[in-house]
Amino acid sequence: MYFASDNSGPVLPEVMAALTRANEGYAMPYGADADMEEVRTRLREVFEAPEAAVYLVATGTAANALALATLAQPYQTVFCSAVAHIHEDECNAPEFYTGGAKLTLVPTDNKMTPEALAASIAGEGTRGVHGPKRGPVSITNVTERGGVYSAAEIAALCAVAQQHDLPVHLDGARFANALASTNATPAQMTWQAGVDVLSFGGTKNGCMGVEAVILFDPARAEEFEFRRKRGGHLFSKHRYLSAQMAAYLREDLWLQAARKANDAAADLAHGLRDAGAGFLHDPDANMLFPTFSRAAHQRLHEAGAKYYLWEGDLDGADPDEHLSARLVCDWSATDDNINRFLAHLAGAQS
């Protein structure tokens, strides 16, 4: 009953096997290995972007911060959701790697709207040299509240950015889960909608630790390379990053894993609704925010369920008070774990 995070799940067997193979013999360092060439070719095919520049780093924070540093000047501001990962969970890494660019938070509790983004952009750039210059827009898909932007919704946000000649970054730590929940193609969800740079996640979806940064404008590539090296994120034994990403992309393993996670979350959501739980946000992918009684939370924790209590105090006095939780399914979530969780919940609710 482990639903704390998709970061907590195991590595895909195909990825682990690829790492074992990569450990045999010798390979050229710093991304000159054969697997990295396969990664570049495959990602360009997947995104229908033959000129795109492709790089690997080990963490999502590095991917986001280095991507934004390539797009933003130190005197600019990055426009992002008030609940974006780059704001809530990256310890000012974007500000650090950009050399001081600030974040301007677009009011939202899940997905940004074009209207809110436009208002936030209009609110900056009005003080001349005394305020920050308008800079990139950063969108997160899947959002930190479990929402998924459609290709049309991304295009609408990008259109607002383009009206002000601002580049767009997409934080796709869960891009595979977002794509699996739509009928769009990777190209439609990114550069065709107006995205300039994508952080393409692997770690949350079954890799050991690898993320890709895809720059759809190759003119930005040289700057990214220097920033990655200067920032300490160019791996010498790069083949261990390349091997993960290459295996992840073969035969669409990345989409298969995302579909498994999304399907598990849909089953869990169905069972939660049947048990009378409500939801803070509609679950679009593999992340759920249900609400149910404190007594049920207590019973689940006592039974060993692992998840984050989102709002409320587990030790409060009223057993019937509803508290919210964050539950995340990864590719390895099983029917048995889901059914055990729901059985404990039903037992406490009865």
Automatic annotation (TrEMBL):
<dbReference type="InterPro" id="IPR015422">
    <property type="entry name" value="PyrdxlP-dep_Trfase_small"/>
</dbReference>
<comment type="subunit">
    <text>Homotetramer.</text>
</comment>
<feature type="domain" description="Aromatic amino acid beta-eliminating lyase/threonine aldolase">
    <location>
        <begin position="3"/>
        <end position="289"/>
    </location>
</feature>
<dbReference type="InterPro" id="IPR015424">
    <property type="entry name" value="PyrdxlP-dep_Trfase"/>
</dbReference>
<dbReference type="InterPro" id="IPR015421">
    <property type="entry name" value="PyrdxlP-dep_Trfase_major"/>
</dbReference>
<protein>
    <submittedName>
        <fullName>Aminotransferase class V-fold PLP-dependent enzyme</fullName>
    </submittedName>
</protein>
<keyword id="KW-0663">Pyridoxal phosphate</keyword>
<dbReference type="GO" id="GO:0008483">
    <property type="term" value="F:transaminase activity"/>
</dbReference>
<keyword id="KW-0032">Aminotransferase</keyword>
<keyword id="KW-0808">Transferase</keyword>
<dbReference type="Pfam" id="PF01212">
    <property type="entry name" value="Beta_elim_lyase"/>
</dbReference>
<dbReference type="InterPro" id="IPR001597">
    <property type="entry name" value="ArAA_b-elim_lyase/Thr_aldolase"/>
</dbReference>
<comment type="similarity">
    <text>Belongs to the threonine aldolase family.</text>
</comment>
